[in-house]
Amino acid sequence: MSNQTTGFCLLATLMLYSLAGRAEDISFYQAMSGPSPNKSVPVTFHGTLNAPPVCYINGDGDVVDVNFGNSVAISNINGENYMQPLNYQIICRGTTPVGMVLLTFSASATPFDTSAVQTTIPGLGIRILESGTPVVFGKGILVNPKSPPVLQAVPVKQTGISLQDGNFEAAATLRADYQ
């Protein structure tokens, strides 16, 4: 570009800015390089940190008790008969709104059914179901604490074993962790 053309472009640019009432904002460099760059503004960040809520099963960790009663007939144990609900609630306390909760069962599984808790009678287990599906011990179930899933327990027996009659017990742990 010749000096004469550059001078004309500069003069035309200055006149345009002058007509727009912006002559005070222009410098020679700006006239040669285009419109003025945007002005910078400060950016601030703020927020509130909240501790995650503490979630409990049945309030302050009360026991979830499942009683199969005194009339469980060995010959009728088939993984469907004697099914009982696990009556529980998920209660979360804290200032943070509650999102999802991870429910996790821990138990000693029977050697014949990995979703059944070992009982005090060899060959007898208590299968845990979540909405009809056997749970996997140690693997969490992501749930909405406001509408928790149906949990059930049902006696199961090992095939080919004769069970002894008598009282039985089994124990598992149910944990709720805020996600």
From TrEMBL:
<feature type="signal peptide">
    <location>
        <begin position="1"/>
        <end position="23"/>
    </location>
</feature>
<feature type="domain" description="Fimbrial-type adhesion">
    <location>
        <begin position="44"/>
        <end position="179"/>
    </location>
</feature>
<dbReference type="GO" id="GO:0043709">
    <property type="term" value="P:cell adhesion involved in single-species biofilm formation"/>
</dbReference>
<dbReference type="Pfam" id="PF00419">
    <property type="entry name" value="Fimbrial"/>
</dbReference>
<dbReference type="InterPro" id="IPR008966">
    <property type="entry name" value="Adhesion_dom_sf"/>
</dbReference>
<dbReference type="InterPro" id="IPR000259">
    <property type="entry name" value="Adhesion_dom_fimbrial"/>
</dbReference>
<keyword id="KW-0732">Signal</keyword>
<dbReference type="InterPro" id="IPR036937">
    <property type="entry name" value="Adhesion_dom_fimbrial_sf"/>
</dbReference>
<protein>
    <submittedName>
        <fullName>Pilin (Type 1 fimbria component protein)</fullName>
    </submittedName>
</protein>
<dbReference type="GO" id="GO:0009289">
    <property type="term" value="C:pilus"/>
</dbReference>
<dbReference type="InterPro" id="IPR050263">
    <property type="entry name" value="Bact_Fimbrial_Adh_Pro"/>
</dbReference>
